[in-house]
From TrEMBL:
Keyword terms, alphabetized: Methyltransferase, Transferase
Record InterPro entries: Methyltranfer_dom (IPR025714), SAM-dependent_MTases_sf (IPR029063)
The Methyltransferase domain, residue ranges: 163-300
GO-annotated biological processes: methylation
Protein name: Methyltransferase domain containing protein
Species name: Pseudobacteroides cellulosolvens ATCC 35603 = DSM 2933
Annotated GO CC locations: cytoplasm
Source superkingdom: Bacteria
Keyword hit for Transferase: yes
Organism classification: Bacteria, Bacillati, Bacillota, Clostridia, Eubacteriales
GO molecular function: methyltransferase activity
Keyword Transferase in annotation: yes
Length: 397
């Protein structure tokens, strides 16, 4: 397998390392199938006493969890393809790698019986419902909560959706102050969701802005998947939400015909997040909320000689790339006059990709931020997509 694919595979595997550590009680095991020509080779990985046990080619290795990425990537160098099957209670993750591409998919599964750990988790999440003062309240938001699958027909939160309900309400809680500021400045709040998927959060935002904040609102969801767009249109129709439209298209091709007040994008992969930010900045959107995912572009570009002995370790270079990618996004947004903040919007136990970027337009330009960006760009030897998207003709800026 070529170096580019090995690097991408390592990046995905490093995410699994953190997932194992965060969800050790749920971890079941990993199976890897390598293939060259017609021959297949199997590796199995289990966890014993806090360490990984790797069986491959008749040999057994015991190592730290942090070794997973480097070890599997090293094996993969000798083969044409690799299929990684990661299993934990309730979730199966597939990573497929070859010389052309590396892709990951996640499948949620419903266990028939709850273990003691799962019962304890259920008890903890149920306690949150009993003790938390929700913004999206059961009894008031039942229609939308039932439509997105949180509530059963009898008005109770489904056992396997308690955590999702808490996440959705926490999302609204984080944005509540921003939504109120937008409400004070605008007669109508228009929200654009870039890569909307099934649009669950967009429906909840519709409920909250319209029925709790009592503001006129309009919502636009765009995604390249016809399946999810059709599902979103059907849910909007079921709810009677006539203030929503959904478009099948690529984020980078979108040209708004409404004044957009808030642009959001959750888990848009790699440079799709940059294109979402670009749509917002180039259309003078007042506020931007992004949850980035799979930062791969800078990983394949940057070097920094003072850190060469640190960055020679692939996993450390990948984690540094994540930090640099989002830090550069923040700096470029600041250069365009946005005030930027970042926070962990959910626990790392849920996902290591839990960083939320929130930006509000406060001025026209910030030349100091742009000068800082120039110096950083030169030091790292990078050419980020976001610069090209929002700073056309940047060299003369």
């Amino acid at each position: 397998m070529n170096k580019q694919s090995i690097g991408k595979l390592s990046l995905f595997l490093s995410g699994l390392e953190q997932r194992i550590k965060d969800r050790v009680d749920f971890f079941k095991g990993i199976n890897v199938k390598f293939k060259s020509g017609t021959k297949e080779y199997q590796a199995s990985i289990s966890l014993e006493n806090g360490k990984l046990k790797i069986n491959f080619n008749g040999k057994t290795e015991i190592g730290e969890i942090e070794w997973l990425s480097a070890r599997i990537a090293k094996f993969a160098e000798n083969y044409e393809t690799a299929l990684v099957l990661y299993e934990e209670r309730g979730t199966t993750i597939y990573i497929e790698a070859d010389n052309k591409n590396v892709k990951m998919s996640v499948k949620e599964t419903n266990a028939k019986e709850n273990t003691d750990d799962e019962k304890n988790m259920y008890h903890n999440e149920t306690s949150k419902i009993a003790n938390r003062d929700y913004l999206v309240k059961i009894g008031q938001a039942d229609d939308v909560l039932k439509e997105i699958g949180i509530l059963s027909d009898n008005g109770k939160v489904k056992n396997d959706m308690i955590r999702k309900y808490n996440q959705i309400d926490h999302f609204i809680e984080i944005l509540n102050g921003l939504l109120k500021r937008l409400s004070e400045k605008n007669e109508t709040i228009t929200v654009l969701d870039c890569g909307c998927g099934k649009s669950y959060l967009l429906f909840v935002l519709n409920y909250y802005i319209t029925e709790v904040l009592k503001k006129k609102s309009y919502f636009i969801g765009i995604d390249y998947s016809e399946t999810v767009i059709n599902a979103s249109r059907k849910m909007a129709s079921n709810l009677g939400y006539n203030n929503m439209e959904f478009k099948i298209m690529d984020i980078g091709n979108y040209r708004p015909d409404h004044k957009i007040n808030l642009a959001i994008s959750l888990h848009a992969c790699d440079t799709a997040t940059d294109h979402a930010i670009g749509v917002a900045v180039n259309n003078d959107v007042e506020a931007v909320v992004m949850v980035p995912c799979c930062q791969k572009e800078i990983l394949n570009q940057y070097t920094y000689e003072p850190f060469s002995q640190v960055l020679k370790h692939g996993i450390l270079k990948a984690r540094m790339a994540d930090v640099l990618t989002d830090g550069i996004r923040a700096l470029l947004l600041e250069g365009k006059g946005y005030k930027v903040s970042m926070l962990e919007y959910i626990s790392p136990l849920e996902t290591p990709k839990n960083l939320m970027l929130i930006a509000e337009k406060v001025q026209n330009e910030n030349r100091k931020a742009m000068d800082e960006y120039r110096r950083l760009k030169e030091a790292l030897g990078i050419n980020p997509t976001l610069e090209r998207v929002i700073y056309k003709g940047f060299e003369t800026y």
